[in-house]
Amino acid sequence: MVGSRILLTFLAFILAVSVVQVAAQGQNQDDALSQNQDIIAGSSSSDDIAAAASQTILGAGPKNSPSPINAVINDTTNSTTNSTTNSTTDNTMNNTTDNTTNSTTNSTTDSTTNNTTNSTGAPASQGTSTGVSARLSAAKFIAGLFWSSQTTGMHRRCSATIIAENVLVTSAACAQTANPISKYGDGEWRIVAGTDDRYLSAPAASVVGNKVESVSSNKCSNLAIITLSEPLLLGDNIAAILMSNSPVLDTTTVVTYSTIKPEADPLVILTPGDDDACELLFPDYDKRGLLCTSPVDTQDVTADYLGGDAIIGFVPQDDVAKPVLFGVTGLYYSTVAEAQTAQANDVSAYRYNPLVSQHVGRIASLGGLDAQKIATPATPM
Fold it and tell me: Does residue 320 or residue 268 have the better pLDDT?
């Protein structure tokens, strides 16, 4: 009972932290860490913390799985091939830059940057006027990756996390072009930030977003680095977040902002998976820059197989817990055949999430940034 109270007290402390807004360039690490914007907004009451804490693991998972299996990635509406590694497939370790991401034909959509303001003071338990939860609305470091079709408009694919005004990260599975082209026709990738439209499957017709220049996908870790030809305007409603250069330990507290159901409370507490079970499903996962996490009780493989949502941890700074980005949600590995093609849910599936710590240098290089200003080596809490 005492341990539970300590855990809830600690969670109440870390979930009441303030936002770290990082300018794209020209700030030192201490200045970046000291900026106070609300990254994790909303109430930190005991009821609120208890609700978040209820989303815990289901158990150790399938320790006696017969063999490693393919990761869930195939779209149920399209036969997209698996873009990440598994133990039965040899994949290159090289980073490949997809400079044809925007398709061979340009979208005729106006490329005006869409950084309109969106203000909300609603507590986390309430939604905004758009139906998006107040916590998601206040998460200024989260953007939406959209396919802008020449014929059918904007279609949300998944989340992307803002590292700088011109650089974001998501899962490589999210940023494949074959699926959106087959579903919506020729077009280009766009980033929507600063408004609740970034969470909507079909945003307002006036939303055009910021044009993507390129997507660099690491097929080993399933991390995609997005660069923009039209930079975001960082400010009151759009913020960058520092990345962590440190490993995620068993004692590290991490949460993800689930955006699959934008009207729901997005915070989900993640727990590192049992190492034996994680190795059994995906040998050498840690050497590939992946964080293996145990199942959560809200898990839905069929709805959330692409990943891309931000995974946040905390580092101490001036006696305050500061949020940092550890990675993004990745691919599920399941022993259920139907779950391997996202046709059935598997509540016991483990998830392998790409970490950013091994990619800080490349992210900085692609964005023309100083690696020491976009990441922190501080030991996570």
Answer: 268
Which residues, listed in sequence order, are joined to residue 43 by a DSSP beta bridge? none
Residue 138, Cβ density class (10 Å: 0-12 exposed, 13-18 middle, ≥19 buried): buried
Handedness of CA 258, 264, 269, 271 (dihedral sign): negative
State pLDDT tens for residues 51-67. 222 222 222 223 333 22
β-strand pairing of 290-293 with 310-317: unpaired
- 325-362 burial, b at 16+ Cβ within 10 Å, e below that, comes to bbbbbbbbbbbbeebbbbeebbbbbbbbbbbbbbbbeb
Contact 306, 260 (CB under 8 A): no
Work out whether strand 167-171 and strand 153-164 pair parallel, antiparallel, or are unpaired. antiparallel
Q: How far is it, in rounded angstroms, from Cα 148 to Cα 203? A: 11
pLDDT in tens, 181-227: 999 999 999 999 999 999 999 898 999 999 999 999 998 999 999 99
- State the pLDDT confidence band at 73, using cuts at 50, 70 and 90: very low
